[in-house]
Task: structure prediction
Amino acid sequence: QERLVESGGGLVQPGGSLRLSCVASGFNLEEFAVGWFRQFPGRQREGIACITDDGEVKTYADSVKYRFTISRDNVHKIVHLQMTSLEPEDTAVYFCSTKCKIRNSLGSYEITPHTIVWGQGTQVTASS
Result:
């Protein structure tokens, strides 16, 4: 069974950093792009970062660009999201997926694979 499992969320003070991890099992992660999404209460999930299957192309939402960095290690089937300068406005549940959907000042960017897998989410809270 295809699974993605996120970890690394938690409580951090404003200005702090966290690194989220997304670990795959049951399928070949290296064949898929991976997207990170976040969801605020009462809102739809929004895509914030995407990395292609080979790790060559990374795309970000304007709201996180220059603060968040996506990376991957296909040998260990893991994708990271390094988050810095976290603010209360970043407080949300963060999900990883084999789907990507980003809207930024350059336009829309979307990858929808034949198999869409979602993780269960991890809570990130930036608060003093």
Notes: The two ends are 40 Å apart (CA to CA). DSSP finds no helices and twelve strands in the chain.
